[in-house]
User: Fold this.
Amino acid sequence: MLRIDSLRRGRFGPFDLALAPGEACAVTGPSGAGKSVLLRMVADLDPSEGRVSLDGTDREAMPAPLWRRQVTYLAAEPGWWAETVAEHFPADAPSRLAPEREALRLPPEVFGWPVARLSTGERQRLALLRALAGGPRVLLLDEPTASLDPDSVRGAEAVIARRRAAGLIVLLVSHDPAQVARLAARRLAVADGRPA
Amino acid sequence: MTPGPLDLALGAGFVLLNAGLSALLGLGLARTILVAACRLVAQLTLVGLVLRTVFGLGAPGPVVGVVAVMALAAAYEIGARQERPLRGPWRYALGGVVTAGATVIAVAVGLAALRPQPWWNPHALIPLSGIVLGSVMSGIAIGLNGFTAAVRGERAGIEARLALGATRDEALAPLVRSAIRAGLIPVLNQMAAAGLITLPGMMTGQILAGQDPEGAASSQILILFLLAGASGLGVTGAVLAASRRLTDARHRLRLDRLA
Assistant:
């Protein structure tokens, strides 16, 4: 269970939300409303006030890196820090993640590719795979399929759905109403930094 | 062999020639050259006067005071050379404190080796502190500037690592390493090139002043060791401190702490 209690920072919030294992909630609203800010606050990537807990354990009760391994944020424009794709993954990832890599329509050789050669869509799918590699309990997805073709979108949604069936909690920012309808049973509308 | 006013005028003629050349070629540097030459004359004459007074007082307080003023100037220079400095007093304080610490250690080693009598003898303490401060200052200025620029440029990659559960030290390690390396290149070059490509300034001065070149060489070796040690400590300390300042205890990247 992910619990968010009066989470706020500056002009953003307060936000309250509780999500059970396997549940998905879509965060909707116009650009600049504070959707990404909310996700970043939940991941503790920006300073914030209020409480966030996972299964009754407060995030302050554990080191931030440990929290983020369980509550993982995936940015809309994911960053890279090494030359090849493989360096961004744990050593056992290529074999362990093979089915999900395939569902995302990425070839097995992808791990040997240089990051500079990747297309925007490939980056986005690899970043999703990378976020899944750590086995998070909560995934905070910021427009995860914005630059994907329809086939890849279906692949990404299938991967997310399978993880949810195994208990993954998903908080999703998406501008696509059809995707919101497909993926998320719950909504959190945000306007002007506040729940609308 | 001290040059008199007439000899200096000869040297000044050389600078004027340079300025004339610049005007002739339209480089637009003539004014800058003349202003810099005038500043040089004024500054060094003034420093010579102040130092002579301090040397004459025969007390440790004024000598240490002169060194402290030099350290403040170094702190200011480091802060002034940052493209995107740290916000608030950190801009000058971080570089200044680390520079002062590294200089104190290096000068203590230097004094232990040279054993001047008394330890605060201004003939040893002031030039020693000055040369160490200058070297540490330029290393730290380069290291800090490179580090903050790299952190800003690599923001997405750093935050991606943090979001996946890396600690702040893990996420910043490659940037810390390359900034330290960049900050140490000048002093490493100085060591490697000493004697072959340039005669270091201090050694040149000593030889010109009539000292035995072998003695001048051995004191130059000692000085370069002190510079290398102090720069290593200073640059490493400053970049590590900046990496702490640009993150917080919850392992967040805090670019809001840059101006």
